[in-house]
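Duplicate of #3305? Posting structure anyway:
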């Protein structure tokens, strides 16, 4: 056998193997109508919040999963979540520069607000946990010297971070629900 014939057979074998691997790949859009994810997201309920940040995350999740139609009355899945917020300065202030000196000069201090969202997605009919995780989102802020402006800047940063955290949780929930077997609908006359 010549090396040219051997090379052709090897190339053919590699090509057939590559086509087999590509044929087994099943990539599809996550939110396509055929996957039924939109309907499953409509069937997700959310536990009651315990603080303001949880309320903002929950409100955004309800809007994102239902498309603005509101929460379903009889959910098939439930998301329990807890969220906490921490605000801190990102600059290392020395003893010469404390908060009083900064506020007198009216120079804003760079800060950050971090929201930690821990959630679990549970199937209601059997109580099986399908997904649980923690997401962290950071929102950067400039903290002014005025007290009310400082509180408002922190609250605005919490709202921004809560919206982003809700997007992450929605994506995680959609991926977990896409792995669930589709329920067979019975046809009626």
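Output from current build:
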């Amino acid at each position: 056998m010549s090396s040219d014939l051997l090379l052709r057979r090897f190339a053919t074998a590699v090509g057939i193997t590559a086509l087999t691997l590509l044929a087994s790949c099943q990539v599809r859009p996550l939110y396509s109508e055929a996957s039924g994810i939109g309907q499953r997201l409509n069937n997700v309920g959310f536990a009651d919040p315990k603080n303001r940040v949880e309320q903002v995350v929950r409100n955004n999740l309800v809007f994102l999963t239902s498309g603005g139609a509101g929460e379903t009355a009889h959910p098939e899945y439930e998301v329990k979540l807890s969220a906490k917020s921490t605000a801190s300065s990102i600059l290392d202030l020395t003893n010469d520069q404390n908060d009083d000196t900064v506020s007198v000069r009216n120079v804003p201090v760079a800060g950050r607000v971090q929201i930690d969202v821990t959630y679990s997605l549970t199937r209601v009919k059997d109580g099986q946990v399908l997904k649980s995780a923690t997401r962290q989102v950071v929102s950067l802020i400039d903290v002014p010297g005025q007290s009310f402006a400082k509180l408002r800047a922190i609250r605005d940063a919490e709202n921004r971070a809560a919206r982003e955290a809700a997007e992450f949780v929605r994506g995680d929930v959609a991926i977990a629900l896409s792995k669930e077997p589709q329920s067979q609908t019975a046809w009626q006359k």
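Confirmed duplicate; merging threads. The radius of gyration is 25 Å. The first strand starts at residue 44 and ends at 46.
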